[in-house]
Recover the amino acids of this structure.
């Protein structure tokens, strides 16, 4: 049995193997922003990137999905496949792909870290029982960080940043929907099905290109394969299994780790810089996430 980490307390506790798995998932998801940026720099169009990414991800996930079909009803999950396929894959992937034209990998990941803040805002707006002053303060602190990043004094492109916030809001809406699904509905099954639906939604966009595959370099195909298979499908399968072992609260710690991974990779590989505004904006967003996720005694 793995020896528990010394890093433990009221917020999370996990053994060494699970913590390293969480680090690995954060590295994979952080690298997805790096590959988006590399593909854009190599001349690929955003819709082209997302479409091929989704097709490759779907091809990898299909065997896992078929195995899940033996336990769960396809028809009972059909609406969820479509909704989450749109809100959790097709739409946010497209928004981030377009944003990557103007923003670096680190900036993309910092803006995605607003998802828990937007989730808290949606929850206590729709459900009175979800409200707490901790969550409200978390939302306010998070938006202060966001304003520091994209406001008048910020260094980030405003339109690209708005695309990232729209993508994060889409993730948040999907998360709230999944949190409220009945017990008979399998969220992991929905997640796998949503990747396949996302591929069907995005594939027609390849018709806009006369040669969507042959013009791609071997290096870009490697990036696409890693982005679709490893960073999207494989990371998802690993994370779903990890949630079962360590629970959703411990798993949410990945929110803090993904930007660290992405910023580090951006600095090392793309020679990106971490400005003072980015650093303080990220710190405010992380602090906002902490308060937005903090549960009251009643909860």
């Amino acid at each position: 049995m793995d020896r528990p980490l010394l890093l433990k307390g009221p917020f999370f506790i996990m053994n060494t193997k699970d913590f390293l798995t969480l680090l690995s998932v954060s590295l994979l998801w952080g690298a997805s922003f790096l590959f988006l940026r590399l593909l854009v720099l190599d001349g690929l169009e955003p819709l082209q990137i997302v479409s091929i990414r989704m097709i490759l991800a779907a091809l990898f996930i299909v065997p896992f999905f078929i195995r899940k079909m033996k336990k769960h009803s396809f028809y009972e999950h059909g609406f969820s496949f479509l909704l989450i396929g749109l809100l959790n894959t097709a739409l946010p992937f497209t928004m981030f792909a377009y944003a990557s034209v103007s923003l670096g990998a680190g900036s993309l990941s910092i803006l995605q870290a607003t998802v828990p803040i937007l989730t808290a805002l949606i929850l206590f707006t729709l459900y009175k029982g979800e409200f707490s002053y901790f969550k409200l303060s978390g939302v306010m602190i998070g938006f202060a960080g966001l304003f520091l990043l994209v406001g008048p004094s910020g260094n980030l492109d405003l339109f690209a940043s708005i695309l990232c916030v729209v993508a994060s809001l889409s993730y948040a809406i999907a998360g709230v929907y999944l949190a409220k699904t009945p017990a008979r509905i399998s969220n992991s099954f929905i997640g796998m099905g949503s990747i396949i639906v996302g591929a069907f939604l995005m594939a027609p966009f390849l018709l806009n290109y006369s040669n969507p595959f042959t013009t791609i370099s071997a290096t870009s195909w490697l990036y696409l394969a890693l982005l679709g298979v490893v960073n999207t499908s494989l990371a998802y399968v690993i994370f779903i299994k990890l949630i079962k072992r360590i629970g959703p609260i411990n798993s949410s710690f990945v929110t803090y780790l993904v930007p660290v991974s992405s910023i580090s990779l951006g600095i090392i590989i793309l020679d990106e810089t971490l400005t003072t505004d980015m650093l303080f904006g990220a710190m405010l967003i992380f602090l906002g996430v902490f308060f937005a996720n903090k549960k009251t005694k009643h909860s």
Notes: The chain has eleven helices and no strands. The radius of gyration is 19 Å. Confidence is low (pLDDT under 50) at residues 1-12. Residues 30-293 form one domain.
